[in-house]
Amino acid sequence: MSYLLILLALSFAVSSLGWIYFIYFFSIGYGFAISALSVASVIIFRDVITLPIAILAAVLFIYGIRLGLFLLLREKRSASYKHILYQPENTTKKPVFVMFMIWISCALLYVGQISPATFYLYNLENGAEVNEVWAWIGAALATAGVLIEMIADAQKSAAKKVNARRFVDTGLYRIVRCPNYFGEVLMWTGSFIICFGACCTLWQWVIASLGYIGIVYVMFSGARRLELRQNETYGKDPEFQAYIKKTPIILPLIPIYSVARHTWLKG
After folding, report:
1. Rounded distance, CA 197 to CA 150, Å?
2. Cβ distance 168 to 137 under 8 Å?
3. Residue 182 CB-density burial (10 A; 0-12 exposed, 13-18 middle, 19+ buried)
4. Average pLDDT over residues 87-95
5. How far apart are CA 113 and CA 209, in angstroms?
6. Which has the least CB within 10 A, 38, 125, 133, 199?
């Protein structure tokens, strides 16, 4: 259990960026926490690290650093993002108790997200007969997820340079309306399925499952917020209406075209 306490302390430390500005709990605090936790896991279990887990850790590190820096730069350069970031609901001072509860929830979630790889290494270190095939599958899915995110972000940036006022429906956006969120779901799915080969105990399954369910919820909640903003911006555009009726919102080939009515997804 000592390794989990170390990771939790680190998660609290990095995600404390949210005390500077509330939304940082979920944005740059999230990205940098994932990077820090992936590095810490490798250091803690350096004597038993395997190649697929090392690849996964590298992927998560790159993902987290890229996300944190991307958000910092976007906050500095993008007026539209600043408008979203500093909406009244985000700038209103929160009660200290609420801030503490959010901080605790975020720190626990981030540890839960990266826990499958740490459980794999911990169990391996303690003599469990882990199945490396699942680790390779997980690392491959996670890598594919990050690549999808990077490609989607590049395609959106290119499209907005051509026409900043039009919604994006080119490249990966022809297949799914939120390919970056899909990429993240795929990445964390890859991380989670490592548990199937990690000889996890019941409590390890519980922690990993809560982390996975939590981040999938966050992604669908983010897709809902984006859908509401796009409906407000492009809702009267006939091309946009045709696009959203035939293009799934977050999971390719899965006919879920809207989550706006699902208020339980409100983050």
Report:
1. 28
2. no
3. buried
4. 66
5. 8
6. 133
Of 156, 177, 193, the closest CA to residue 226 belongs to 177
Amino acid at site 251: L
Count CB atoms within 10 A of the CB of residue 73.
11
Say whether pTM exceeds 0.85: yes
Model pLDDT for residues 156-200, shown as the tens digit of each residue: 989 988 998 899 999 999 999 999 999 999 999 999 999 999 999
Residues 196, 198, 201: CA angle, nearest 5 degrees: 90
From CA 64, how far away is CA 66, in angstroms rounded? 5
d(C-alpha 145, C-alpha 183), whole Å:
4
Residue range 94-103, pLDDT digits in tens: 788 989 999 9
